[in-house]
Design brief:
The complex is a heterodimer of chains A (about 250) and B (about 240).
Chain A (H helix, E strand, L loop, with lengths): L1 H15 L2 H22 L3 E2 L3 E2 H32 L1 H6 L5 H30 L8 H25 L3 H17 L12 H6 L4 H14 L5 H24 L4
Antiparallel strand pairs in A: 1-2
Chain B lengths: L3 E12 L2 E12 L3 E5 L6 H8 L7 E6 L2 E2 L4 H7 E4 L11 H10 L7 H8 L14 H11 L7 E5 L7 H16 L3 E5 L3 H7 L2 E6 L2 E6 L1 H8 L6 H8 L4
Parallel strand pairs in B: 3-8, 3-9, 6-7, 7-8
Antiparallel strand pairs in B: 1-2, 1-4, 4-5, 9-10
Helix pairs in contact in B: 8-9
Classes of the chains: A mainly alpha (about 250), B alpha/beta (about 240).
The structure holds adenosine-5'-triphosphate (ATP) and magnesium ion.
The site of magnesium ion (MG) has 4 residues of chain B, from helix 1.
Chain lengths: ~250, ~240
């Protein structure tokens, strides 16, 4: 237990030393949220949502993506390529502990990033936060786990750091711009709107909005939950089959 | 200092068509310093990593400290210390953090302050391992191999890339632990240090153990006149 705790603490400490991770988790989403907020805070979006109802979930979706792909998927490939895991296999540390520490890091990054967005919304913009904090937390956790499993695929299939980085960079554009996380989907050309269906983050944005606005347990959310649930199952199967520590 | 602590029996390991280890049998006695030499790609690291429990042989049995490595890997890992050929540490970890982290993995711990002073790494404790010069990185990874006060220490090329003085100092450290009765297995490309410090030397050529004996015996049995390990190496380990 003490071993697991020490190892997890170190994993977190190392995370906070990654400049790029800090930038993509705690700076870019927060700054975008503020800038867009200053420009669009009085807009109304699809479903009658105001800026905060639509884009608090949107920015948090971005944090989920960058955490899963960069801080988890890519970082695992980097550590594995360096031989870190091989060295750890030479100690009594259990593989479960490494796995648990990585997951803990993912949750920490997302929850802290999310809280940062909420604080900005409340204290900088004076916006109302969700009346459904439990539903939102549930949605956030479910979406995070789903994306962890996608990050797991990245670290299973990419052998080299460059490959993992390439995958993450290529995925970044559709995830950022075709999911509804940053640009309103209804403002995009038809063809791009259709492509959004194939972008996993679209479902995260939808479910987080459902959680935020209290519609998580309604018929409208079933489809999105089912798609993410399917992704979770399939990615976990693929990851478990192909993942190697060394 | 009797008692066998490592026993390899007919170990094979292939990567595709490459036979990295091709039928090696070897025993190491408690308290021995055993050197493993051979050309690049001969199979030294593969053999060492099989003994460390990091690679699984295709066939053959490995016993470490009297236990079969397949059944008692966890028990064995608690009692050995390893240093890999590459430093293999997190990019952003500091020396002191690495020591504390690795120490936390074990129930049995050796006093970290003592290890730090023996290896002379105190001035570097707050530096990132990545930013240290090769020699200090090597020492850091040696220090990590000692945190659990292991019975057997495996070192894969611990002195490669070090300047002559650093090599001497590292050997002084290794010899200190040898005096405590620890068994030490190491690979090296430096014949002079193998000859000087090793009780026995195993010569690997293309995955096969071609000789294994005391340096003196190797030299006298293979050469008509008085020679050095370098002569032995050139005669035994290298392609004709
Ligand atoms: N993971 C691997 N995949 C494929 N081939 C490998 C792998 N590990 C080792 N080999 C091959 O096995 C052979 C033995 O490699 P090994 O690293 O054991 O040699 P070595 O004696 O340690 O060499 P060096 O002196 O260069 O460290 C080499 O031909 C190497 O290319
Ligand atoms: Mg080697």
């Amino acid at each position: 237990m003490n071993t697991l705790l020490t190892h997890t603490k170190m994993e977190l400490k190392l995370f906070f030393r990654e400049t790029l991770a800090m930038l993509f988790t705690f700076i870019v989403p927060a700054v975008s949220f503020v800038v867009f907020g200053l420009m669009f805070k009085s807009n109304t979006y699809e479903g009658g949502l105001d800026y905060f109802q639509a884009y608090i979930p949107g920015m948090i979706s971005i944090i989920i993506f960058t955490t899963a792909f960069f801080s988890m998927g890519l970082q695992v490939v980097i550590d594995r390529e360096k031989g870190v895991y091989k060295r750890l296999m030479g100690t009594p540390l259990q593989q479960n502990a490494i796995f648990t520490a990585t997951i803990a890091k993912g949750f920490l990054a997302i929850y802290v990033g999310a809280i940062e967005i909420l604080l900005i919304a409340k204290f900088y913009f004076g916006a109302d936060l969700t009346p459904n904090p439990f539903e939102f937390f549930l949605a956030l956790t479910f979406c995070s786990v789903t994306f962890f499993s996608i990050g797991f695929i990245v670290s299973s299939l990419a052998k080299r750091m460059q490959t993992a980085l390439g995958i993450a960079m290529v995925a970044m554009y559709p995830m950022f711009f075709l999911s509804g996380a940053t640009l309103p989907l209804e403002s995009l050309p038809d063809i791009l709107q259709k492509m959004a269906v194939a972008v996993p983050l679209t479902y995260v944005v939808n479910i987080l909005r459902d959680g935020w606005n209290g519609t998580l347990f309604t018929a409208g959310a079933v489809m999105d939950i089912a798609v993410l649930g399917g992704i979770l199952v399939v990615s976990t199967l693929i990851g478990t089959k192909f993942f190697r520590w060394t | 200092m009797e008692g066998t602590v490592i026993e390899l029996q007919d170990i094979h390991k292939s990567y595709g068509d490459t036979k990295a280890v091709n039928g090696i049998s070897l025993t190491v006695k408690k308290g021995e310093v055993m050197g493993i030499i051979g050309a690049n790609g001969a199979g030294k690291s593969t053999t060492l990593e099989i003994m460390m429990g990091l690679r699984r042989p295709d066939s053959g049995t490995v016993k470490v400290l009297g236990m079969d490595i397949k059944e008692h890997a966890q028990e064995i890992k608690k009692r050995i210390g390893i240093q890999l050929q590459q430093t293999a540490l997190y990019d952003r970890i500091k020396v002191k953090e690495a020591l504390e982290l690795f120490s936390s993995y074990y129930d049995k711990k050796r006093d970290l302050q003592e290890i730090i002073d023996t290896l002379g790494i105190r001035p570097y404790l707050n530096k990132y391992v990545k930013n240290l010069s090769g020699g200090w990185q090597q020492r850091t990874s040696l220090a990590l191999a000692l945190v659990n006060d292991p019975d057997i220490i495996f070192l894969d090329e611990p002195t490669t890339g070090l300047d002559p003085q650093a090599r001497l100092e590292l050997w002084a450290c290794i010899n200190r632990y040898r005096q405590e009765g620890k068994t030490i297995l190491l690979s090296t490309h430096y014949m002079d240090e193998a000859q000087k410090h090793c009780d026995r030397i195993a010569i690997i050529k293309k995955g096969k153990l071609v000789a294994c004996d005391r340096p003196k015996s190797l030299i006298s049995s293979l050469l008509s006149e008085e020679g050095t390990m370098e002569d032995v190496y050139l005669q035994v380990a290298v392609e004709a």
